[in-house]
């Protein structure tokens, strides 16, 4: 099936979803080519909190099963660490933490309720403002930057190819199928096309005359200087997601997002804003024993959401050789499972290990064109402060 | 159609600047003070911010300059240091008289502007902080006069206290009068090295030698002769093999002669006793703030590498932002001649005022921009930096840290090794290196950071950025200007969580804060579709169960 200029499967988008799909395909012997407009994992795939606790999802059990094996399967480190601790500073937060735990319990996982003392024993930097928490004997987290590169390298180790700095500019249709992909580096033929291009996935759907409702937004994270390793680095709460890295840095995000527009295929800039201050406050509240730690970095990322916040993983009926994949802003942790699901959609026409009917595109068939405005998911420019010439 | 507002979005809850000023000048060096004074004389409200006196903790982390732990204990006395900082800078008084609001001891840790992916800001603003709190200041015009820092290069033992940069040394000698050094070895014989040596001698430091990798002294011949006459030995065609000492302090340095290929000459080692190694190889403009406002940067080796593109009035590609002094481009001689920086500052101050309509059209032509003030520059510098770096690799080998904070050696960098703490070893990973990475695209410092962690540490890559770029260029067999500048991320001064946090958070921020988007169905269990899990729903469930 191999050919110099093209592949059996061409994947548009070298993020965590496309790379995982490509890796699963390559390791089962499929000729695969990933087209990436900049560097692998450069967008949200490499900028997220690294959480891998999504048991609510139809892909959740496979996520849980696969993560502990990923280092061995890939041959490169992902820094995956099992189990999570939820810290609650209020009754509402505790109710939320319990809800997460109970969803896991419904899937057969174990968890425990922790009181303040137990929390402090596990995480000494927890303060007296904590009222309790949860210990999940499931879920976990990994290092997104290391993981995306691991997927990319493992994909290549299995004979797959990746073209970086290659922007897809057009999809050529012939007899109801996409047969060629036009890029800034030439045209590539394909039998099957997987489009996993994050916020840009909707623009590609448009090219195919398919409507995929997506709203892009910018979110932000901060990182502190390293702290000696906690016994459990998977600690979150107080409206923050994140972890202590194996290097010791505390890396956390959360809080308000900004709805934006992604006008073209260019790599969007992702600056951070003064929100870093608010993030700092919540982190100091969550872990008062670390309030003196210095923030050394912050960053932003662009993610996309569907109207119900759930992924679209679907093989189109027309053109019938295209698979659309957007994870609706929650893609990193599920990536081992979703890549496998996509590879099965390619090879078998359906996912063998999970029922993906809830993630079909047709659920948005009646979504009105102005859905973003209706939900308020649109950019809202701040009123401009008058240019003052004095005081 | 009902138009909803997404309560979970940033709309209406972002912090507002607590103050708005027509012109903010960052940095009270020669350029900044001149800019602030000129703009104030034109009638504009001007805020001049400078981080000196820098807190002792910040200095101990080699931020913003490479102080190398050579501060006298007196730097802990902030009142005394404030006095000295003011004394050392007589132009500050002039600025104050002109009506400039001078704020010392305040860090600028970020610059925030709207862009295609940020529309929420009510206007451009700076993040400021002192030791106690952070705040935001809006501006109409920003003049960045943030100075320069040292090019840092490692050698075996460079982690020891006493290895520092010339900017750090000069700052401690002049601003703080608190340099704790008795015997200093100066590395680099350009005007920067000679000037630093002369200054140090004048302040009672024993300069035990000046090392130059080239065959001849590079700086002003007269200064060099004067130094030699005072007994300062010059070690040309030499490089550093190692810094030695017990308990983490520099006690001596082993120099070695290099041949025409910059390789060490066997048997030529010479141990020089010293407590300080002052790196004076070159200067790098501080472009963090100009990069953060989105100003276009270009690479000009003669100006120290990446600098903001400026017009004759020192205006960057962002019309509201100006850059003046060393941060707009620096060469070896600028320490000795602040006149150029001052001239650029005046131009920027005038241009900022003019762009605000504060200078009438009848203003005499002489007050207009004079592009002639831009120095021709001493010529391309990166070839010289590369020579130093190559000699240090030849003499010190590949197992020397290129990044001290994250303990990444030169070898680990070019082998793109996962960090040591992962203790990762697999045949696949062993086969990966810079060469295999390069097959997939041009070299990118941000990608190398992600994979090796070089540049990810608490010094915020101040001590490794140039080394990493030089090493990548060398190993990728490409020019240094082809290595993109790594991205700049706030806070560019590392601040504690409990200083950075806002005291003026809006109630809406607190009320509607949520970890992710708050889309009710996003995390609902797929087997009970439609069940919401976000926090208000959880709260609602809690309340109803209480009832």
Strand content of chain A: 25-35%
Oligomer: heterodimer
Q: What's the number of helices of chain A?
A: 10
**Average pLDDT reading of chain A:** 94
**Basic shape of chain A:** globular
Count of DSSP-assigned helices of chain B: 18
The outline of chain B comes out as globular
> Could you tell me the number of beta strands of chain B?
22
Q: Topology as H/E string of chain A?
A: EHEHHEHEHEHEEEEHEEEEEHEEEHH
State the helical fraction of chain A: 25-40%
- Cα-atom Rg of chain B, whole angstroms? 26 Å
Distance between the first and last residues' Cα of chain B = 36 Å
For the biggest sheet of chain A, the summary is:
8 strands, mixed
Strand fraction of chain B: 15-25%
Architecture overview:
The complex is a heterodimer of chains A (391) and B (547). Chain A is α/β, with parallel strands linked by helices and 391 residues long. Chain A has helices at 16-27, 60-66, 70-74, 91-106, 116-122, 144-157, 201-207, 275-286, 335-348, 371-375, and strands at residues 6-12, 32-35, 81-88, 111-114, 132-141, 161-163, 168-174, 177-183, 186-195, 215-226, 235-237, 240-244, 249-254, 258-259, 294-305, 312-315, 322-326. In chain B, strands 1, 2, 3, 4, 5, 6 and 19 form a seven-stranded mixed beta sheet that branches. Chain B has a five-stranded parallel beta sheet with strand order 8-15-9-10-11. Chain B has a three-stranded antiparallel beta sheet with strand order 12-13-14. Chain B is globular, with a radius of gyration of 26 Å. The chains are: A alpha/beta (391), B alpha/beta (547). At the A-B interface, α4, α6, β10, β14 and α8 of A face β1, β6, α12, α14 and β22 of B.
